[in-house]
Design a protein that fits this description.
single chain; globular; Rossmann fold; 5-stranded antiparallel sheet
Amino acid sequence: MNYSEWADWYDLFYSTESGEEAAFYLEETLSAGGPVLEIGVGTGRIAIPAAKQGAEVFGVDSSPEMLAVAASKAKAAAPLPGGLTLIRADMRTLQLGRTDFALVTIPARTLLLATSYEEQQATLCCAARHLRPGGRLIFNIFNPTPELIFDNSPEPVEIGEAAIAGTETEHGRRFRLSAVNRFDAETQINDATHVVEEIGRDGVSIERARLNVRLRYLFPHEVFSMLEEIEVQVDALSGWFDGSPFDEESEEMVFVASRPG
C-alpha cells in the first residue's frame, strides 16, 4: 500500500461513508473513561474530533505521510483539550511501554492490512498488551460473504461521488470513486485497486489516481481463535455499528472484546 499516494486521497474516500463508523468509534472513545489508543489513526478523522471533545488519544500509524496530514489537521483544529499524541509505529510489533489504556481501537478494517494470520494475531496481541485489566479492544472488519469473495467480475464497484469545495474554482471539484477487487479464496488475499476520477464541468471524467491496497480477509471463527489464544474475551459481535446482531449476510463484523480484570 503506497501510503504517500493514499494520504492525498484518504479523506476524500471516507467522505463518501455514512458516518456511522466514525460516530461509533467517537462515542466509544469519549466514554472510555481513560486514555485511548487508536491503531491506524490515518489522517485523524476519529482521533481529532475525540481529542477536541476531551478524550486523551494516542494515535498510531506506520505512515509518515498520513501522520503529517493528521498533524496538520490537528493544528488547524486546536485547541484539543483532551490531548492528541501521534506516534509512528508498526501495529504488528507495537510496544509503547505502558499498559494503562482503557480502550484500544482498530477502526477502518485496518487489521486486514496485516496480510498473514500470524501478523494479524500479532497485531491483536500487541493491542491487548496495552490494555489495563478490564480494558476493552474494539475493531471492525468486513464479512467475507460468498457473494463478495467469489465475485470475479472485472467491472469496478462504484464507491460514490465526493466533492472538495472552494478549491481551484468557485464551484469546487467533483470526484467519482470506484474499486476493482481481486479476491483469492485460497490465500484470503484481496488485491484491490481504487480509482479516483475527477469530473469536469463538462461531465468528462479524468483519472487522477490509481491506488492499490492488499489485505487479508478473516472469517469469524479465525478471529475468535486469535482472541482466545491471546486470552482476550469477546463481549459482543455485531453486524453493524448500530449494534445489529451479526449473521451470515451482515456487511461488517464489529468486535468488542476485553482483557480480563
